[in-house]
Design brief:
Elements: E1 8-9, H1 15-18, E2 27-34, H2 40-53, E3 59-63, E4 68-72, E5 79-81, E6 98-103, E7 106-112, H3 118-136, H4 161-169, E8 204-211, H5 212-221, H6 226-241, E9 250-256, H7 258-261, E10 271-277, H8 280-283, H9 287-301, H10 304-322, H11 327-343, E11 347-354, E12 364-371, E13 378-385, E14 388-395, H12 401-412, E15 418-424
Parallel strand pairs: 5-6, 9-11, 11-13
Antiparallel strand pairs: 1-4, 2-7, 2-12, 3-4, 6-7, 8-14, 8-15, 9-10, 13-14
């Protein structure tokens, strides 16, 4: 990457930028509760080490009348002593799309979702925690699959995945024997049913700590993932509030595209959404059978040929968008795409996977993720550390109707939980250029 800080760095995943507006920042915030109070001086050293290892992420977002783009940003990443989110692409963050903070025994990682997804945020955060814990406790810790300071990043780690994939397959025909998923035409949107009132200023969040064994008993019964079990439980909770609806409760589950596209080390946003209706046909089955059916849908949609064929179509749309001459027209087109995605699901559930912290695990008490997806309604974000799951429920309103219903489903299934936080949803803003 050029050292010329004013050189444009093209963004092929343009819809992530052009679809932004004053109500949607499209950001992620990771909260890592440590065993001991955070030492700010040591954490600053860890952030400096992280900068050197992930130098390719040091960019600012700019735009002109034709396009959005990145430029190299040589300023240091910000580390602030606060429990409040840091506005990204602003003076507060040195105009970076990443910023860090700490308060008491918590470390916060604020990132722009268009630059990296949940998996990427986890990889970045894991490296930061590793550097910090090694310095803080003055020992070399055995932590698997962590980005070591001083090592050279793999090429696919900093790749513009969609651009590089499209360049690789643009002249090839990709045939999938599995048909593409058809959109649901009658999706339920919770803000239109009278029980809640959508408002960005009233958004709330509840964070739960759940014993791993309680949730995994359902996953093992149908060889499924925690994300499938959690999605079904939230869908069931919503259904209990609207049993007579003629609308479809649709579960949106992110699919990691890295394995199918051949970019296993990518830190950038590399995912699509699988939409699964909680239909009357599905509800006829018991919970174990529901899990097995949903697991099959996820496996089918993970087929490499299908993923590559669908991703190529998506890239073709992005390529067309790049030829639109004016930024304002691109924003209008991308807003239409974003609005369509919001209408496609009733609830979204994300699982970043088990946090494999190795010897560092004893220093990390909890991991919670929050994401800005204003307009999508209610979403669950899951992570696991040790013998516990940490579940965040983010919603676009203050009423706890669906959260209470979800907690009732957990109790019905004898899944114990502790409420670790119940209050305002705190996520970073992204200041548009």
């Amino acid at each position: 990457m050029s050292e010329n800080k004013n050189q444009k760095i093209k963004i092929f995943g343009a819809s992530d930028c052009y679809g932004l507006n004053k109500d949607l920042s499209f950001t992620i915030r990771g909260t890592y509760e440590m065993q001991d109070a955070v030492d700010g001086d040591i954490l600053r050293k860890a952030v400096d080490m992280l900068e050197q290892r992930f130098d390719f992420l040091k960019v600012s977002m700019r735009k002109n009348i034709h396009e959005f783009y990145y430029v190299k940003n040589p300023e240091p990443w910000v580390l602030a002593e606060t429990d409040q989110p840091i506005a990204l692409n602003s003076r507060e963050s040195n105009y970076h799309l990443i910023a860090f903070s700490y308060f008491e025994n918590k470390i916060y990682v604020n990132v722009y979702h268009g630059q990296m997804d949940g998996k990427g945020t986890y990889r970045l955060s894991k490296a930061l925690l590793y550097y910090y814990c090694c310095l803080r406790y003055e020992k070399e810790l055995d932590v698997p699959d962590v980005a070591k300071a001083g090592e050279k990043p793999a090429p696919d780690e900093y790749s513009d995945v969609y651009y590089d994939f499209y360049k690789r397959v643009s002249g090839k025909e990709i045939i999938s024997r599995i048909p593409a998923q058809q959109p649901v035409r009658n999706t339920m949107k919770l803000d239109r049913l009278g029980l809640v009132h959508m408002s960005r200023s009233a958004r709330t969040c509840v964070k739960l700590e759940v014993p791993q064994a309680d949730l995994m008993q359902y996953c093992s019964s149908f060889d499924g993932s925690p994300v499938t079990a959690a999605a079904l439980m939230m869908a069931e909770a919503i259904y209990t509030k609207h049993p007579d609806t003629d609308k479809e409760i649709v579960m949106g589950i992110p699919l990691d595209l890295r394995p199918a596209l051949g970019f296993n080390n990518s830190i950038t946003s590399t995912y699509s959404i699988i939409y699964i209706p909680y239909s009357a046909k599905l509800r006829k089955h018991d919970f174990k059978e529901q899990g097995t059916i949903c697991r099959g849908i996820v496996i089918k949609n993970s087929d490499p040929d299908l993923v590559q064929a669908q991703t190529k179509k998506y890239c073709q749309k992005l390529a067309m968008l790049r030829y639109v001459p004016l930024t304002c027209i691109k924003q209008l087109a991308a807003q239409i795409i974003a609005d369509g995605m919001k209408k496609a699901e009733t609830t979204g559930v994300t699982y970043v996977g088990r946090c494999d912290f190795g010897e560092m695990e004893k220093y990390v008490k909890s991991v919670f993720l929050d994401a800005d997806a204003y307009g999508k309604g209610i979403q669950l974000l899951l992570a696991s550390v040790g013998e516990k799951f940490f579940i965040t429920i983010d919603q676009d309103w203050s009423e706890k109707v669906y959260i209470d219903a979800f907690l009732q489903v957990l109790r019905k299934r004898e899944i114990s939980y502790d409420i670790r936080y119940d209050g305002e949803l705190k996520i970073p803003e992204l200041i548009l250029p």
